[in-house]
Write a structure and sequence with these properties.
- This is Amino acid synthesis.
- With 194 residues, the chain is an alpha+beta fold.
- Strands 1, 2, 3, 4, 5, 6 and 7 form a seven-stranded mixed beta sheet that branches.
Length: 194
């Protein structure tokens, strides 16, 4: 199994106070973390890449803990999450899929009781590529107020033989969310959907 070689990390935070309406009583806080690592499969086809997911798990957990700390340290404050990966041009899209399990596992591990699947996206791109990372509620994917995305990217990553691995956490719904659907207060908490 290849080793993990980390080049850089970035922790990005946002506070949203309003969206052209009255200021929210509590601002929405969003945090994203990007880890740029060497892609051990760049430039070649490797049939058995799945074992590398185990190598990525400690990185995912460390990222999730740093993000939680940036949001104040209380898992109960985190209401939304998502993940994504940008694969450098010498890699293939499937290399980004390696982040599905370790990225989602890490946030659920750190948050304790999150039930919803962690939404994800990935793409191949070069330095400066941006990714709209999808976000849903941590316990029920059908809570429309928490359908969101955070655009994430770094000016110098990923290089051709790198992966940019991304996690996102949020503290609430979109500011002024008002399109109906299942409310967070009405989550049944049985299946990660409702």
């Amino acid at each position: 199994m290849p080793d993990l070689t980390l080049r850089k990390q970035a922790l990005l935070t946002e506070e949203i106070f309003h969206e052209f309406g009255p200021p929210a009583s509590v601002p929405l806080r969003r945090v994203a973390m990007v880890s740029v690592i060497e892609n051990p499969f760049a430039g070649r086809y490797e049939p058995d890449i799945a074992p590398f997911m185990d190598t990525l798990k400690p990185l995912g957990e460390a990222m999730a803990r740093r993000m939680l700390d940036a949001l104040g340290g209380d898992p109960a404050q985190v209401q939304g999450y998502g993940k994504g990966a940008i694969v450098g041009a010498a890699g293939e899209l499937e290399h980004g899929a390696l982040w599905h399990v370790p990225g989602g596992w890490a946030m659920r591990e750190v948050l304790g009781d999150a039930m919803a699947i962690v939404p994800s996206t990935k793409k191949v791109g070069g330095p400066g590529t941006r990714l709209d990372v999808p976000i849903t509620h941590v316990n029920a994917s059908y809570v429309r107020s928490h359908f969101d995305a955070m655009e994430v990217g770094l000016t110098d990553a990923p290089r051709a033989a790198e992966l940019a691995l991304i996690l996102v956490m949020t503290t609430g719904p979109r500011i002024h969310a008002r399109v109906g659907g299942l409310a967070a207060a009405d989550i049944e908490g049985r299946d990660g959907l409702r």
